Structures are given as C-alpha cells and as structure tokens.
Amino acid sequence: MTVQLAPIPDHVPLPAGFAAAGVHCGLKKNGQLDLGLLLADAPVPAAAIYTQNRLVGAHVHVCRDHLQRGDGLVRAVLVNSRNANCATGPQGIVDAQACCAALAARLGCPTEQVLMLSTGPIGAPLPRQRILDHLDALLEQASGDGARAFSRAIMTTDTYPKAIFAEDAALQATGFAKGSGMIHPNMATMLGFLVTDAKLPRAEDARAVLREVADRSFHRVTVDGDTSPNDTLVLLASGRGRGQSNGGALLTDLAQQLARQIAADGEGATRLMTIEVRGARSEAEAAHVGRVIATSPLVKTAVAGLDPNWGRILSAAGRAEVPFDATKARVWIGPAAVYENGVCHPEREGAAHQHLANETQVVLGVDLALGDAAADVWTCDLTKDYVQINADYRT
Question: What pTM does this model have?
Fold first, then answer.
C-alpha cells in the first residue's frame, strides 16, 4: 500500500523566470523519463548543500566547483536518473563536466553556470553520450509547463512524483524532490530542488536561507537511517517576485510538505509517521530525540504491526543522550496518552491500536518535561516490502 498525501496535479506552475522539462534518453526502461532540466531565463543566485557521506558522487565535486567559480550564479540544472555516477573515478567527473559544457554551449553561458546532478545505482559509468544526444530535445521541451515532466524524470524507486507549488501575497515557489530509500538527515536526504522568485541578491543570502529551510524540513525526515553519496539540495532564486521577503517562511512550508511526501513514499511504507517531541530545552534537542525515535527499527516495526508499543518509543528517547526524568515524561499514540508520570495506561492501548489500524498518517509523541521547545520528525513504518525492494534493487 502506497501512502500518497495528495496526488500531483496535472499542472504544477513555476515561478516567473523558470522553465523545466523531462525526456527519455535511454537510461530507464520502457520509455520512462530519465533526464530533467531546470532552466532560468538568466543567471540567478543559487546555493546547494550536499551529503555528509565520505563517499560522494561525481556531481557533488562538479557542483561545488561550478558554484564557487561562477560566484553562485546558475543558468541551468541538468539531472539524470538511473545512474548515480558515483565511485566512477576521475572519469565520472570528466563525464559530468562534459555534459555541463555541452549544455552551456547551447545556452551561450559559461560552463560553471550549469550544474549537473545524478541519482541511481552506484558504480556504473555515466552513459554520457545518451545524455549529450538528448540535450537539444530537452531544451526544445523546456517551458513553464514542464514541472510535472521534470518531477518524473528525477524519480528512482519513488512510486509517485513529488512536485509542489506554493505562493503568498508577494512570492511564488515550486519544490521538487526524489527520495524513497537511503533517506536520513545527514544533509538533505535525497535530491531536492527549490525555485522561487524571491529576492536573494547574493549567493551567501541564498545559502543562509537554504540552510535554515533544510534544518526545519529535509533534516527532519528519515526512512531507513542510510544516506546517499549523492544527496543534494539546490535553491534557485530569480528575484522577480513582487515582495522584498527572502521567501524563507514560504520555502520552509514547501520543503516540509516535500519532506512528508518523502517519508510517506518510503520504500515499502504503509504508514506515514509523525514523531512529535515536546518539552525539550531547545528545538535542536527536540529534533535530535525525534530522529532517534524515528530511526528505531523496533518503533517502526511496531507501527507496521499495528502494535501500540509505547515502551519502544520511550526507550528510544531514553538512548538519545538527552538527559530527562522518565518518571515525568509522557508518551502518546494518536489521541491516547499511554504513559504519564511514570505510570502506564494499558486501558488506553485499544484507542492507540485503533489509531494505528485506521489511519495511514499516524502520530507518536513524547514530552520530555524539560522545557518549552518542540519539533516534529517524519518517517515511515518498516515492512517486509522494504527488505524485498532493496534485495531486488539491482536485479
């Protein structure tokens, strides 16, 4: 069973100054889209954050280099799926650079104003000629209506595309993400793209906003505790919006929606789990405790089995290295407070079980009774299908 929060609409708008596209270049089977493009009308301020894995994909090296040499200005972002171009040695970097150079030549911009990202299985050489052969088709398809195609082109084991448009009185933003497995907050946990018409005149402005957004969204989602060598989150800002805001609040809301979609689409998932941590001394502390609970296989399998095992929740919180008095803590599952002030309430476990059984979006919570800070973390249950999907990933 797939937990889909909301189906992607037929049309996902893009903010002023951006176009997108997706084509099939032969990396995936059955004609599925596998090469995507985000295109700005002119070079725009950009920022990116990357995986903290010691193994990194070739595109991470290239993106860092291009953003530094290009003073944080980007004209286009090229993305291929079904090949991570990771652990491919110096040739992998050469291949990514060649793709960037070829696209830049077509756009008439410096090579460093083009970024390239890759996602898929690790270790195979990048089929760069297939990509080069389809750049013209990709540019021909690029339009303000191309967001849906782009969102499909970047998918790997995702069961549905993730693209969301949001706006307020002054600004617009569109967010994309791909991610279903190898998801954990050790950077951005996936490939993600945020494009907005907010005014972020300098690269350092974009970096500051992106870090704040990620800390409250993509850094709070986990599926399996593993991180990809290719994790990258990119922000592009055209500056063509009506307001003066940097768009941080709008982008944070958008990114949180995408983070929830990633958790809901976790490999083999049947339940989206929101871990609510309350009563912490700081938001960072609350988020840390939430991540420990969210990555506990015992908590995740209990939810898969519809078992309101509150002891697993409290035990996970207790090993998070945040000192608290368990006799003052409170634990809840859905509407049922199953543990309060050192006393369990088995008579409430029936209501907790019904919450797990009847809802595909479930809530587990703990109050540490330390302070007023709070944070939510998103994850999914752990099922037999997760094992099967990953056992069959390359075969």
Answer: 0.92
